[in-house]
Design a protein that fits this description.
This protein has 472 residues and is an alpha/beta fold. Helices cover 29% and strands 20% of the residues. The protein is globular and about 65 Å long. It comes from Bifidobacterium phasiani.
């Protein structure tokens, strides 16, 4: 067994011993990081003084590029990156190749061979059975997000009733829990029908609240200085305002991705005050960077929505501080460095984020004095799990905090009622470290945060009560 001595519970401050089943033979580690040694009895004892045990981080917005773009990322490398970042649960976006729409894969199309070679007929089936078909054990739990329109083409709405029927009444390890055409907003022509199908299926719409046909970066002094077409800020607000009205008409839950502008946050505040079924997220890069970062990082700071003005960045932080933002998601978007080095106009949008998100957010929000340690965990673990329809692990509840005890208590995960449902992160909230993309577990390196000095680091990740990643 593995015992972490004197670890602090994230929301109560109680100091406990945490006992995990098994050994440290198989967890992932960073390069050149040794595993802790076992004692003569075969047990591992770790001094966890100063560390925090919290529910595992969760990210409802990741792109693992498998199938179809595995030069950028695979399920294996993406899940390793998630575990490295303290994440225990993720939601995989549907812009795979072929798209994750539940439709049969046609032989000869891009990415089709990877699906058909496994004897699977569509991408949902491919990802649900990935571990058994590839002979791997992935160190993170994951759900699936299906396309809002077939092929993500914006034409015909996806057959959500058919998708849901395939998992109804069965214990599905990797269920479809959300709908999105991530990368594009749902077109006006099919929006109401998509929302009707989403509501009937008992799912929610994750909306990419940005639409523009021209432009590469935020419209403003930076775009003018570089002589590049700009993207106006109202390209986001138009989609947000449209979808708030649609949520009012239909009663369907709409969750806005990567919100980045002051105007959008104000519209969302008003919608929430009205009691509409609206939630939203933002991402570490909108917290930490403005469009000025383009001048320093070039294509590594190119994304969609684009990095906005310094005033919008402050609006992002204010919306986090006042509770308008429900959660923080990474929008982990791997690309090859050859693609990113193609120049600002040609480079694809997006950056990776799973392995440094907690440190970047801790530096900007907690060290910056805007929110507490506890609030950051709520934003990165508790709220995302609830959005995805899961219950975050209640450490204090497992300890049965209602009982009186004068001595330090032990949480032995070998003896809890459902050890398979216990997902935890062990965090060093005070650790300062330097982001080094070359040590990432992701296949990708496209981040502007390389070389940043941040604080707060995930030290271990526990899935189903078992240690799957360790820096201890």
């Amino acid at each position: 067994m593995i015992t972490l001595h004197d670890v602090r519970v994230w929301d109560t401050g109680e100091v406990i011993d945490l006992v995990l089943p098994g050994t440290v033979d198989h967890p992932l580690t960073d390069p050149d990081t040794p595993l802790p040694a076992a004692g003569a009895d075969g047990d591992v004892r770790i001094d966890a003084t100063g560390l925090t045990v919290a529910p595992g981080l969760a990210d409802p917005h990741v792109h693992f590029r498998d199938p179809g773009q595995t030069a950028k990322e695979t399920m294996v490398s993406g899940c390793a990156a998630a575990a490295s970042g303290g994440y225990t649960n993720v939601l995989i976006m549907p812009n795979t190749v072929p798209a994750m729409d539940g439709e049969p894969v046609a032989a000869g199309g891009p990415g089709a061979d990877e699906v058909l070679a496994m004897g699977r007929g569509d991408v949902i089936d491919f990802l649900r059975h990935y571990e058994q078909d590839h002979g791997v054990a992935l160190p993170v739990a994951y759900d699936l997000c299906v396309c809002a329109s077939k092929g993500r083409a914006g034409g015909e709405p996806t057959d959500l009733a058919g998708v849901v029927a395939r998992q109804r009444g069965r214990a599905v390890e990797h269920p479809v829990t959300a709908v999105s055409d991530d990368g594009s907003a749902v077109p006006d022509a099919i929006l109401d029908e998509v929302l009707r199908r989403v509501k009937d299926a008992g799912l929610y719409l994750i909306e990419h609240c940005e639409h523009h046909d021209t432009g590469f970066i935020n419209e403003g002094p930076v775009s003018r200085r570089l002589g590049l077409p700009g993207i106006p800020e109202d390209t986001e607000l138009r989609i947000v305002a449209r979808d708030i009205e649609a949520a009012r008409r239909t009663g369907t839950h709409v969750h806005f991705q990567h919100v980045s502008t002051a105007g959008s946050f104000e519209a969302i505040r008003r919608a929430k005050a009205e009691g509409l079924p609206i939630t939203c997220e933002t991402a570490p890069h909108y917290i930490a960077l403005s469009d000025e970062a383009i001048l320093e990082y070039g294509p590594l700071a190119k994304m969609n929505p684009p990095l906005r003005s310094a005033a919008d960045r402050q609006a992002v932080i204010a919306a986090i501080a006042d509770g308008t933002v429900d959660l923080i998601a990474t929008d982990h978007a791997p690309h090859t460095m050859d693609e990113k080095n193609a120049g600002l106009e040609a480079a694809p949008n997006g950056i990776i984020g799973l392995e440094c998100a907690y440190g970047v957010c801790h530096r900007e929000l907690v060290d910056g004095g805007y929110i507490s340690e506890r609030r950051l965990i709520e934003l990165m673990a508790v709220a995302p799990m609830r959005l995805m329809g899961h219950t975050p692990t209640d450490v204090a509840g497992l300890l049965n905090t209602g009982s009186a005890c004068a001595t330090k208590r032990t949480l032995d995960l070998r003896r809890v009622e459902h050890p398979e449902s216990v997902n935890l992160a062990i965090l060093d909230t005070a650790r300062a470290w330097t982001v080094d993309p070359e040590r990432f577990h992701s296949k990708a390196r496209n981040t502007p945060f390389g070389g940043w000095r941040v604080t707060g680091r995930p030290m271990a990740t526990i899935i189903g009560s078992r240690l799957v990643f360790s820096r201890l």
